[in-house]
Amino acid sequence: MNSTHRGLNRALLGVLGVLLLAAGALAAVAGTSRGFALAWTRTGTRVWARIQEELGAARILESDVSWWTAAVVALLLTLGALLVWWIASQGSGRSNQLARTEAPDGATAVDANVADQAVKAALAANAAVLYASAQSWRVRSSHGETGLKLTIQARTGASPTELMDAVGQVVDGLDGLLGIQLPVLVRITAGTRAKFSRTMRVA
Amino acid sequence: MSQSTLIRRLSRRETHSARSALSIVSGAVLLILILWLVVELVLSMTGNAPLTLSPAELAERTAALATDTLPAALWGAAAVLVLLGLVLVSAAILPGRKSRHVLANPRSAVVVDSQVLAGAISRIARNAAGLAPEQVTSSVGRKRVHVVLDPASGRAVDTEAVRAAVQKHTSGYELRRPLAVSVTNAQDTAVGA
């Protein structure tokens, strides 16, 4: 339910992959063909000489440093900042607020903990559920900006239909409690707890 | 966005990988490279000694890389680069499905781990066959579920009845993608049986 930019992830990984493949292909050709290796060095040396000329032509105030070098540093720092943003955006989108209504004499905000406590209390007595939690996430929908994710850890052998009936009642209860229908994602998982707890023998 | 579109979108996102781990690793590696380059550039601009390689030397070495390196080393580097490139490109192209199933529900997007389904199916199968929990193993794939029964030797098990019981229950799960059920008796395939 998080707002990770999945398309961006795939696009950037694809571009990086194609660049690595191209570099690999270049290295392979240079390792096979002596003529290509010589051409590489010839072109490379010429390009580097040209770059040095350009660097010399744009010195900052008679110093040894070129404007171009400063520009490259600025570009690299920008790229670095974008990379930090890319890394930080993974798994983002959690929110603490379930709902909010504005009225002339004040606003009412419902904390995400309300849903969490309600779900825990409603499913505490259910033998098929080992652990239940609710977390709100930012989701674009016709009902505002928030969505609710319910995570249910099921005991091994628990019937998905019965779990779904129990969770459906909880969702209906929340709908009534909040007065709005938030988008809901229900995750029924077999987490680590399921491995270490008893199997359901009857259901 | 209508409710059913939203449910479909949430279900899709929950059953497919976001490629977060690989993105974080690639981003971090690139970031380290860029920071190193910046440090070297700043050091050379201020006239300090380089950490490992000055930018000018780096450029000269790259320019003459193909002739200064042994062909075998170039080949080795090419193999590593191509391998890494293939990993990234396939991560970008392949769907990256997770071992999870979507249950049809009008109100919520419901996504269940295949392991949970396998546990439930095992329970149905062992109740139908009258076996102990350790004697039944189920594996749930994307399109089919396979149940293996391992009864005590000499005890007959009606695999067709077990298959019918499992089929009846799985069709009640309202899976978005129905599962084909197959049941085998491990005793039938055991050596010397």
TrEMBL record, chain A:
Record carries keyword Membrane: yes
Organism: Arthrobacter cryoconiti
Keywords: Membrane, Transmembrane, Transmembrane helix
Membrane-spanning intervals of the chain: 65-88
Biological classification of the source: Bacteria, Bacillati, Actinomycetota, Actinomycetes, Micrococcales
The keyword Transmembrane helix is annotated on this UniProt entry: yes
Protein name: Alkaline shock response membrane anchor protein AmaP
UniProtKB/TrEMBL annotation, chain B:
Keywords, ordered alphabetically: Membrane, Transmembrane, Transmembrane helix
Regions crossing the membrane: 21-43, 72-94
Name used for this protein in its record: DUF6286 domain-containing protein
Organism: Arthrobacter cryoconiti
